[in-house]
Amino acid sequence: MSAIFATPVRGAPTMPPAGGDRLRVGVTLGLQRPDESLWSNGIKQNASRDDIVHDRAWQFTAFLLQALHGVPAVSRLWLLHAQPPQALPGGLDAADLPATPAGIEQLTHELDWVIDVDAALPASWLRRVRRVGARVVALRRGHPYADVLEPALFGLASRRSWRDAPVDEAWLAQPASRSCEPLLRVVERAPVWRMPRLWSPLFAQRRARALLQAGHVAGFRAPRSGSERPWNLLVAEPNESVTANAFLPMLACEAAYRECPRALERMMVLDTFHMKEHPTFNRFASSLDITRDARASFEPRLAALDAAAQYAMDCVVSQQWDDELRDDWCELLWAGYALVHNSAALAAQGVGLYYHGFRAREAAATLLAAWCAPREFWDAYRERSQSWLLTLDPRAQSVREAFAQRLRGSHA
Fold first, then answer.
1. Comparing C-alpha atoms, which of 57, 378, 114, 60 is closest to residue 224?
2. Pairing label, strands 192-194, 7-8
């Protein structure tokens, strides 16, 4: 069975279709107040504070609505808020969000399905709309397991809220995760479904055009022959979780530098400026040869695609732990950058430059082998990436069929 289709967790029953043959669906974004800015809530700061196209919550909502808009059984599609929004944010067109914005109280008796993204809606209303016949879905983005575990263990601010209301099923937007399903099954008290990963180049293309207008080209400059010039390396982990942080990529860059110093011009590590004075990070970073030789810099947060374009990066070295499909990777692969990663999900599709697990030396060897690769290698590399990205497109027939099957309460 193709992985692109919604995959049930063991024990998830099939459900009868709701609302007859034509379904009325409401989807939430997660903005709690009409005057809330896109970057005022930390949940939505996955990429950059400076540009709307890097707001992951809006992007995800746009992709989800685009997928649902193409499902024949969906007759009406609403973008739900506790109060109606005042206006679309800058950077988005109305066509990006093919749904009618509406306050929830207007639609209590009008919905067949409510897809509540990241517990955005009041529990009292969810109980009420469910009593009058709507099916309620708890859709979780990101990494719910880490979002629950880490704030409690490390005394951090909460990343996700949890509703005190029953739901009919939970949808997991990170289909490759192993740890999140058991959590959702217990916390949501409902069957869990892995839904297709959604991504489109729509926002990356707009950002690339804006960068070009500013004099920066978003895209990898493939060499005419291998080892033509030293590479600029980018480490772009968000450093908000053990599931995605800069430590192992820095080790990989260090190992590659020790093996072949002439291969690497510099290493830029994003979202570490605030960590420079932390004793543990400072000692770790200062012990590296690449730092001692003044070839490393530790920078504030910046969207990966922006940094790669503005600072002429060649290769992004990344690492994840049970977080195998990420939007920033999609943007970088779309732009053709060399991506050294440890995602088995990407490796299964022949995408990127794979190393296994936490093996920093293997990552370094992968990096150096790519540095030596000729132009023909990069032509095939980009072709594989583009082919895989097409399977994530919300307009893809297989993606829309997966959502159609779920809304019909069936699974083929």
1. 378
2. antiparallel
Q: Is the dihedral of CA 398, 399, 400, 405 positive or negative?
A: positive
Question: Is the Cβ–Cβ distance between 114 and 145 less than 8 Å?
Answer: no
According to the model, what pLDDT value does residue 264 have? 97
The reply to whether 122 falls in a domain is yes
What's the pLDDT tens digit per position in 239-283?
988 899 999 999 999 999 999 999 999 999 999 999 989 999 999
Note whether 42 and 120 are same-domain residues.
yes
SS3 142: coil
Please give the C-alpha separations between residue 77 and each of 48, 74, 300, 305, in angstroms, as whole numbers.
29, 7, 39, 32
* Tokens standing for residue 88: 């679309």
- What one-character-per-residue DSSP string does 263-312 give? GEEEEEETT-GGGTTSHHHHHHHHTSHHHHTT-EEE-----HHHHHHHTT
Dist. CA 409–CA 405, nearest whole Å:
6
Give the domain extent around 209.
Answer: 202-390
Q: Are 217 and 309 in contact (CB under 8 A)?
A: yes
Could you tell me the two tokens for 302?
């910046």
Asked if 122 and 230 sit in the same domain, the reply is: no
Residue 219 sits in the same domain as residue 329: yes
Residue 346: C-alpha distances to residues 64, 82, 329 (Å): 22, 38, 10
Do 352 and 378 lie in one domain? The reply is yes
Residues 6+ apart with CB under 8 A from 366: 340, 353, 354, 355
Do residue 174 and residue 279 come from a single domain?
no
Cβ–Cβ under 8 Å, residues 233 and 49: no
Tell me if 256 is assigned to some domain. Answer: yes
Residues 304 and 268: their CA atoms lie apart, in Å, by 11
Q: What is the pTM of this model?
A: 0.87
